[in-house]
Amino acid sequence: MVGVVSTAVVVAANLDGALSFVERFTGTTEISGATPHPPTEQRTTENILPSISSTPAPREELPDTVSAPPSRETTKPPPAPLTAAVRPTRAGALVVNIKMGTGGKIGPSEYRAGSNPGANVDVFDDVGQLSSGCYPSWTLLRAGAEVHKVRNGRCTSGGITMFNFGDSLDTPGSYKLQVDIVTEAGQSGSASVDFTVR
Question: What is d(CA 98, CA 121) in angstroms, rounded to the nearest whole number?
């Protein structure tokens, strides 16, 4: 009896498989001589995907911001004529600082006789530090009498001592080093340093 039941199950399974095969190709669920069974639901995009409306959603109206393109003259200014770079205009009073060297220095404002400390100058105005177009004139005085005079072509040293004393400090006494500045912009200023040689 077990053999009959298992044969019936195999036949029923084959019959069900045959129905599925026929359903796929013919769209019909009936085979002549077969017992009908309830139709199976076909899988389609309609029953897999949620329903999508074929009517487009209303669009949000945006204000019309597109206008005619501006004329070429307003979008690009005419090119500037080629000229040299414009330097800032020099202005204001000059601030002049003498920087004495330390060679031979033996105390505050005191130097050893025969020393050569050297000196440089820094010059500033409202724009900043001056270099070219700035001309220092140095004068060394001992007891009010001129001992040594030097002129420079610029107001920065570039690593070279601007005022070199040479042998001017061989004689002990009271000294004054003065620098007078003139610029091509018409500015002028001066500074001085008093010191003693012993």
Answer: 5
